[in-house]
Amino acid sequence: MWYGRLTTLQLLRETIGIHTCDRRQPSSMIQSLFPHVTLEPNFSEQDPFWSAELREPDSARKARLTEFLDDVFMHDQGMFLSFTAHSGAIRSLLEAIGHRQFDLETGGVIPVVVRAERVDGEREKAPDEPWETVPACSMDPTATAVPN
Fold first, then answer.
1. Which of 12, 52, 96, 106 is most exposed, with the fewest beta carbons within 10 Å of its own?
2. What single DSSP character describes residue 140?
3. Quick one: pLDDT at residue 137?
4. Please, are residues 90 and 53 in contact by the beta-carbon 8 Å criterion?
5. pLDDT digits (tens, 9 = 90+) for 34-73
6. DSSP at 100
7. How far apart are CA 103 and CA 106, in angstroms?
8. Is the separation of the CB atoms in 65 and 12 below 8 Å?
């Protein structure tokens, strides 16, 4: 399905929520800035996952990236695939496949060989952890005095 081309996928992303750096741009902007990249089918114009009030817990990120891997293994016929993501997403992908913990530095790469097998039955449901809320400020950031 995605073999042989660069494709942007909605589920392959860093932790979702609160931080504006984790909110993706509208699809029209992505297409105009990166015309050589294909957006996956049903890639929405606006980010359907990001929230200014809630942040995804690690267990939910792992469940989302496990769902992503399930979709790739079900639909992609490519023998060799490469995923590019931030360290939190990579950490969850490694956890989803049972790999040992591996912390990547900025710009780091980890090659992983995976042999996928179809398993009948339902996947175990992820724990239902509450999403984090926005931390309260202890002081008004606009009232901070700047020394002369």
1. 106
2. -
3. 66
4. no
5. 999 999 888 999 999 998 889 999 999 999 999 999 888 8
6. P
7. 10
8. yes
User: Quick one: which of 136, 144, 125 has its CA closest to 59?
Assistant: 125
For residue 98, give the DSSP letter: T
Task: Specify the amino acid at residue 48.
Answer: P
CA distances from 128 to 53, 58, 87, 124 (A): 18, 11, 23, 12
Cα–Cα distance for residue pair 134/17, rounded to 1 Å:
9
Provide φ and ψ at 74, rounded to 5°.
-80, -35
Residue 112 contacts by C-beta under 8 Å, 6 or more apart in sequence? 94, 97, 99
Higher pLDDT, 59 or 76: 59
Under 8 Å CB-to-CB from 47, ≥6 apart: which residues? Answer: 23, 24, 25, 26
CA atoms of 125 and 84, how far apart (whole Å):
26
Q: How far apart are CA 78 and CA 1, in angstroms?
A: 8
Residue 95 pLDDT class (50, 70, 90 cuts): very high
Distance between start and end Cα atoms, the chain: 60
CA 140, CA 93: separation in Å to the nearest integer?
39
| Nearest of 17, 103, 9, 20 to residue 61 by alpha carbon | 17
